[in-house]
Design goal:
Elements (H helix, E strand, L loop, with lengths): L1 E12 L2 E13 L4 E5 L6 H8 L7 E6 L2 E2 L5 H11 E5 L10 H6 L9 H14 L15 H13 L5 E5 L7 H16 L3 E5 L3 H4 L4 E6 L2 E7 L5
Parallel strand pairs: 3-8, 3-9, 6-7, 7-8
Antiparallel strand pairs: 1-2, 1-4, 4-5, 9-10
Helix pairs in contact: 4-5, 5-6
The chain binds adenosine-5'-diphosphate and magnesium ion.
The site of adenosine-5'-diphosphate (ADP) has 12 residues, from strand 1, strand 2 and helix 1.
Amino acid sequence: MIELKQLSKRHRAGTVETTALDAIDLQIEAGEYVAITGPSGCGKSTLLGLLGLLDRPSGGRYLLQGEDVARKSDRELAAIRRGRIGFVFQSFNLVDEMTVQDNVKLALRYGNGSDRQQRARVAEVLDRLGLAHRAGHHPSQLSGGQQQRVAIARAIAARPALLLADEPTGNLDSAHGREVMQLLRELNDEGTTLVMVTHSAEHAAQAARSVRLLDGRILVDAQAEHWA
Ligand code: ADP
Ligand code: MG
């Protein structure tokens, strides 16, 4: 599903240039659950942003479902992102001026059917995430755990093949964090390819594969050990 070849990203701030990712080779198959770990500043968010087509690499190649995305226009990238990729962030990134259902509906476009079909899909995902009774609320009226579930509902509304999560439990207490982790695991069990950045060793251990970064390079890439 994902193939990175010598992928690099340099950030420039004024005259200072930081190499956030240094010639990464990485392959992720459809249906995998991969945890990205490593110390603060090692390039985890940069990697996720590149995978999610939110940013462009400085060098190397990125093949997404066999397609070289480097040569695509911004408009083409946006279309690929909308149709195939869902994002969950640590800070939820919900629009507080809108209701929960309108936040989720933001993820849907013409390609996702008529307005009526889109409303039905929004109701379906909110129900799935146990949020049907909060559809008319605004995000600020909800707990952090509920807000993150709204963000997940938005991320999966268009049925993306790839779900990217950047420290999705970072702003949650441990009970709500476990709930979000359970949900992510279910989505992966149903076939969604999942790449999750996490600081938590316990949460990383839920993924079948763990990629550890250090200074923009892959230090360890290991399949989880299975204990009998
Ligand atoms: P992580 O998510 O692992 O904490 P990041 O990917 O956010 O790490 O950052 C990797 C490196 O790139 C850090 O040194 C960070 O300061 C730098 N960096 C990230 N984003 C930018 C940016 N937009 N401009 C300049 N430097 C950045
Ligand atoms: Mg980060």
